Amino acid sequence: MALAPRPCPACASRTTPAGCELPEMMFGLGERFDYLTCADCASLFIREVPDDLAAYYSAPYYSLEVDPEVVLGRPGVKQLVALLGRSTLFGSGRVSRTARVVPVRQLRTLVTLLESVRLAGLPGGRDTRVLDVGCGAGALVFALGLAGMRSVTGVDPFLAADRTLSTGAPVLRRTVDDLDGSFDLVMLHHSLEHVPDPGATLEAVARRLSPDGRVLVRMPTVSSAAYERYGHDWIQLDPPRHLTLFSRAGMETLARSTGFAVEAVADDSSSFQFWGSEQVRRGTSLMAPDSHFVNPSGSAFTRALLRAWDREADELNRAGRGDQAAWVLRPVAAG
Ligand SMILES: [Zn+2]
Q1: Using CA atoms, how far apart are residues 128 and 142, in angstroms rounded to an integer?
Q2: Best label site of 22, 136, 269, 322, fewest CB within 10 Å?
Q3: How far is the centre of ligand 1, averaged over its atoms, from the C-alpha of 199 (Å)?
Q4: Tens digits of residue pLDDT in 114-132
């Protein structure tokens, strides 16, 4: 007899979930993993969290491999990031709207990140105490420093070692549980779907949050047109690294049960949901030599198609049907 499955990490339901088997498709390792769909909130979660999770984050896992000082600190790039950051966080946002139409994936990603920070708000301006949980090598921590933010910290348990960036920001090899201090904005950019117990992580975040602080959670969601269209070929399933793929309802429930109210939701999906999923459908892993991610100049997809997918992503975002979103949470006073 099979063991009873664990409760849903989003809504805690123990109602018998439906199972499926999903292949690892970032590196094309050939391993398959059992996932369950919650019968109550429709979130998807891995049946058993692998004991050796760190093995799946070894180089070249992209967010850990790329040194922000090298990529964003280069002459010219550094000034552009500073300008973009200041415009998006503190200015009219005109520069970031212009940057959005430049067909460079990394630039668009940075604009999306900065716009989500603006959405969450910086109550203390440049002195707002910001914590980035699951920061990878610290690209956003570095970019916020270049934009003039004076108190930014990053933590990530999969880092090789602690480090201080040239902006003065510490980037620490640890989880939020092992951190002291108080923060006005705690951000989890595509990290909550990676943690074994997202409820415990949000509770740890709550302990580090100032009384009128905000939490910014960005992550993929199964409540999306892309998951409906591509099913098990949807690129953001990313087994086994994505341990929980939340439904929108599941995220609402988890926020409430950990002492938060959802203040805002803004979809920020991109053409990645289409070209990434099309590649999975063809059996091409994300890091394969002929992947659009690895070799965009030799892409299997035409520029016209990629542009059409960009427009489709924008439409889905406006309709609240994108495959990823930013949630802004505010703590609800106990009692
Ligand atoms: Zn559930």
Answers
A1: 15
A2: 22
A3: 12
A4: 999 999 999 999 999 999 9
Angle at the Cα of 139 (from 78 to 195), degrees rounded to 5? Answer: 170
Ligand 1 center from residue 57 Cα (angstroms): 26
| pTM, two decimal places | 0.94
pLDDT digits (tens, 9 = 90+) for 6-40: 999 999 999 888 999 999 999 888 899 999 999 99
Cα 260 to ligand 1 centre (Å): 17
d(CA 40, CA 79): 49
How many domains does the chain divide into?
A: 1
Distance from residue 36's CA to the centre of ligand 1 (Å): 10
> Residue 316 and residue 310: Cα distance in Å, rounded?
10
Phi/psi for 174 (5° steps) reads -170, 170
Q: Which of 154, 181, 146 is nearest to 76 (CA)?
A: 146
How many angstroms separate the alpha carbon of residue 39 from the centre of ligand 1?
7
Say if 195 falls within a structural domain: yes
Q: Per-residue b/e over 139-160, b at no fewer than 16 CB within 10 Å?
A: bbbbbbbbbebbbbbbbbbbbe
Classify residue 205: in a domain, yes or no: yes
What CATH number has the domain bearing residue 153? Answer: 3.40.50.150
Q: What is the pLDDT of residue 333?
A: 77
Question: How many Å lie between the centroid of ligand 1 and the Cα of residue 37?
Answer: 8
CA 147 – ligand 1 centroid, Å: 39
- For 70, the domain range is 66-331
20 within some domain: no
In a domain, 80, yes or no: yes
- Summarize pLDDT for 35-62 with one digit per residue, the tens: 999 999 999 999 999 998 888 887 666 6
Q: Are strands 130-133 and 152-155 parallel, antiparallel or unpaired?
A: parallel
Residue in 15, 33, 37 with CA at minimum distance from that of residue 24: 33
Ligand 1 centre distance from Cα of residue 15 (Å): 9
